[in-house]
Amino acid sequence: MSSHVDIALVNLPHRTLGTYPVGEHLGLCYLASCLRQAGYRTEIVDGCIHRMSLSGVVREVQRMRPRVTGLSVSEPCLPQAIVLTRHLRRAIPDLHITAGGFLPTLAGEGVFRLIPGLNSVITGEGELAILDLMRRLGSSSLGEGIVLHGEKPALDELPPPARDTLPLHVKMGFPASLSTSRGCIGTCTYCSAGSYARASGGAPWRARSIESVVAELESLVKEYGVRIVKIVDDNFLGPQNGAAARVREFVNQLKALRLKARFSLSARVDTITYDMLEELKSVGLSFLSVGIESCVQRELDEWDKNSTIAQIRAGLRALDKSRIPYNAGFIMFGPNTTLEELRIKVEFMMGFAPSTPAAALNVMRPFCGTPLAFQLQDAGRLRGKPGFLSFSFSDPRVAAIHQNLKTRLLRCFRSAVITEADRYRGSAVSRAAQRGLAELSELVLRAGGQ
After folding, report:
1. Can you name the residues that pair with 42 across neighbouring β-strands?
2. What Rg, from alpha-carbon coordinates, does the chain have?
């Protein structure tokens, strides 16, 4: 088979609550830039931004005739990865199919059972490992069932990510994506990002230099006409003892450039302060995502959040005072949530208008390879298989409330989902969220009266 390209990198098309996730897949963008820098002909097939069907992805890969196809696989898109691998194997029998990302890293060799037809798997960060794979394939046949572990590269030494899909994102009104750090300092038991960072080896959180970050931001604004940027870091601020200095350096360098762009970011609610928010707001911060997760200290401790209710309330007061729009991540239903705790959570959430319409319905998800999944498995409460994992509630009354609410409100939530482009027009979403919380409150009161 003559090859038009050496490798095609695929962002699997999948939907969350009825919508395609938006935003550049920076993981694939970095892989593409490293591969091209090494001389490999590389193309990105983004099934999400192009709203492609799986058969459409197969046709596109067939047209490119690559020697290798790389799939980025997380647990939510595992079903699509299984089907696509099967179709690719039938359509291009001698194609080498490799997979990387959260699920392959956390499942290890088990991913070959989950996705039949794979030739190799890359665990950890992929930039160095994908180059190793291509070199090996160029000199010999690797055989089947190969696992390559990616060492963590020095972030400032990586070439800028390929921006193949950025013009389309900008045209459609979506933000550009920017990565300033990788990993997370948190040890939350349910979080696949933290588990991935630790399974990859080395420091769990590391950052690029602010100089390189600001230079890339300047390029996005001046070369691509970007006006909205989403900083995709799991935790932009990093460790608390260095957060204020990191913010100050970032703000000072942005002020010197006088760039006109808005940006959003994510941070731990127990790290932010009003002064930090005001500094970031002065250079364009217009939206913030924070993880509250619970207002019950027992749950915060159980989930290894390493935060207190007092810290959470202080962070929320700082956000309210700054008047920066924000989304507060919250887990209404945990494996061991009691009826009384559910009542406390409803009262807490009704105190402000969350921009996540499914706030009332959010249930903790046990992702493969996380401490939570192992804990539930050891207790005999883990249900399903990777891609569809769930758990049995310890309190049957809470389980009944969740099922009742899910049946009544899921359709409403699906109709109210917003995209990044709609973040600043969220009144309908807030109404949907408040409706969900009101119905949940009613169900909790009924259960408590039984």
Report:
1. 7
2. 22
The domain 175-328 is placed in CATH, from the list 1.10.287.1080, 3.40.50.150, 3.40.50.1400, 3.20.20.70, at 3.20.20.70
The pair phi, psi for residue 239, each rounded to 5°, is: -60, 145
> E strand or H helix at 361, and its extent?
none
- Domain borders along the chain are 7-155, 175-328, 331-450
Q: Where are the beta strands (DSSP E) in 141-278?
A: 146-150, 176-178, 181-183, 205-207, 228-231, 262-268
Please report how the helices 274-281 and 240-257 are oriented relative to each other, as an axis angle in degrees rounded to 10.
Answer: 20
Total-model pTM: 0.90
pLDDT digits (tens, 9 = 90+) for 166-184: 999 999 889 999 999 999 9
CATH 3.50.50.60 is the classification of domain 7-155: no
> Distance (Å, rounded) from C-alpha 60 to C-alpha 81?
16
Q: Which of 196, 358, 359, 376 is nearest to 303 (CA)?
A: 376
Single out the residue of 180, 234, 243 nearest to residue 209, CA to CA: 180
